């Protein structure tokens, strides 16, 4: 773990989503230095399934040594953001550091505010265990994740940088290595267990592939199941599935071990399946003979774009074009398979 240096004492940090998860972890890390924390989040009343509110986070921040200003903020509401900033200035004089959720405008803002405000984006190399990950990943996903502490430590490294350090897209593990951190098992929920890659990174963490075989992450092959023969279809979707079928192998099946069902709307749509559990794999039109581990719903156009590499599955999911039910970890495995097939589609 990265030790605190006290450098953020008296600094004001404006953090969206600070009532829980990564946002709160960053807030608590800064609070240990004696920083002022503006907690900008939507949760003012306890949620039945999600822990924490802006007020409980404020109490934790004060206990850690910082000062707190809880503000009800929906980042989609410009008036709420402006109001929170005004309250921060009124209470703390000004705010010097900000953490926002998605950082799509990093390069533009870094150039616009050069010399005045540093703008950087921070991404985790692996999945981070949060309440959202529990909801998306299902039971047991936490063992494949790291703690929120790694993002808090990485953010702390950025906070210590001068304003000239701007316009960067930073991976948590990389910046911590620069700080001399070598043991990353301390950040793992289950040290030594294979880790899920982050949804937004193209690269696959070395520890995922290196440890998978030795840890038993690859289950034994099941006996071949009898699948209904695919009906005669035509069009881009059928052609996509044909190429996928030609690309299947025992190695892919062994590494994936999942049945995917696709609910496609639009021309050439309907229900399709991709069986990566049975020996050799199989595809077809209609429902699979075994229950699907993952059900994906989207339009046929977006399906073809996704498998051809023109639409990243993660971005499709985050934008609402792709809806996923079932095991999120297995959905991520399919994304890796898509990347291997892009050159053929």
Q: What features would you describe in this structure?
A:
InterPro entries: HSDL2, NAD(P)-bd_dom_sf, SCP2_sterol-bd_dom, SCP2_sterol-bd_dom_sf, SDR_fam. This is Hydroxysteroid dehydrogenase-like protein 2. Has apparently no steroid dehydrogenase activity. Controls bile acid (BA) and lipid metabolism in response to nutritional cues. The structure is a single chain. The protein has 345 residues and is α/β, with parallel strands linked by helices. The chain folds into 2 domains: 12-75 and 86-187, 3-Layer(aba) Sandwich (Rossmann fold), CATH 3.40.50; 236-340, Nonspecific Lipid-transfer Protein, Chain A (2-Layer Sandwich). The chain is built from 13 helices and 11 strands. It has helices at 21-31, 54-64, 78-92, 106-112, 131-137, 149-159, 172-178, 206-215, 236-247, 250-256, 300-307, 313-318, 328-341; strands at residues 12-16, 36-41, 67-72, 97-99, 121-123, 169-171, 258-265, 270-276, 282-285, 294-299, 323-326. The strands form 3 sheets. The protein has a 5-stranded mixed beta sheet. A 4-stranded parallel beta sheet has the order 3-2-1-4, sandwiched between helices. A hairpin with a 5-residue loop joins strand 8 and strand 9 (282-285). Helix 1 (21-31) packs parallel to helix 2 (54-64), helix 1 packs across helix 6 (149-159) and helix 6 packs across helix 7 (172-178). The longest helix has 15 residues, at 78-92. The radius of gyration is 23 Å and the shape is elongated. The two termini are 44 Å apart. The model is unreliable at 204-234 (pLDDT under 50).
């Amino acid at each position: 773990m990265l030790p605190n240096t006290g450098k953020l004492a008296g600094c004001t940090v404006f953090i969206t989503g600070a009532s829980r998860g990564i946002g709160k972890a960053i807030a608590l890390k800064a609070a240990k230095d004696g920083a002022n924390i503006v907690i900008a989040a939507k949760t003012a009343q306890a949620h039945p399934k999600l822990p924490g509110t802006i007020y409980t986070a404020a109490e934790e921040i004060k206990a850690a040594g910082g000062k707190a200003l809880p503000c009800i903020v929906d980042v989609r509401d410009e008036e709420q953001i402006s109001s929170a900033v005004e309250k921060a200035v009124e209470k703390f004089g000004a705010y010097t550091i900000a953490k926002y959720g998605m950082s799509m405008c990093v390069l533009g803002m870094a150039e616009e505010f050069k010399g005045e405000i540093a703008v950087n984006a921070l991404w985790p190399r692996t999945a981070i265990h949060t309440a959202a990950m529990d909801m998306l990943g299902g039971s047991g996903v936490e063992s494949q994740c790291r703690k929120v502490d790694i993002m808090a430590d990485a953010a702390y490294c950025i906070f210590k940088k001068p304003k000239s350090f701007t316009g960067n897209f930073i991976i948590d593990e990389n910046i911590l290595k620069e700080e001399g951190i070598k043991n990353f098992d301390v950040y793992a929920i289950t040290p030594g267990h294979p880790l899920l890659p982050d949804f937004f990174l193209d690269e696959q963490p070395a520890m995922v592939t290196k440890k998978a075989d030795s840890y038993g992450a690859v289950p034994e092959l099941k006996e071949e199941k009898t699948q209904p023969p695919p009906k005669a279809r035509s069009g881009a979707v059928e052609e996509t599935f044909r190429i996928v079928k030609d690309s299947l192998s025992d190695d892919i099946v062994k590494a994936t071990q999942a049945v995917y069902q696709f609910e496609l709307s639009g021309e050439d749509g309907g229900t399709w399946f991709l069986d990566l559990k049975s020996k050799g794999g199989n595809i077809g039109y209609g429902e699979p003979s075994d229950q699907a581990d993952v059900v994906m719903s989207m339009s046929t156009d977006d399906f073809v774009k996704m498998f051809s590499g023109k639409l990243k599955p993660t971005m499709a999911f985050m934008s609402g074009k792709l809806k996923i039910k079932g095991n999120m970890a297995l959905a991520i495995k399919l994304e890796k398979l898509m990347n291997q097939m892009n050159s053929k589609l």
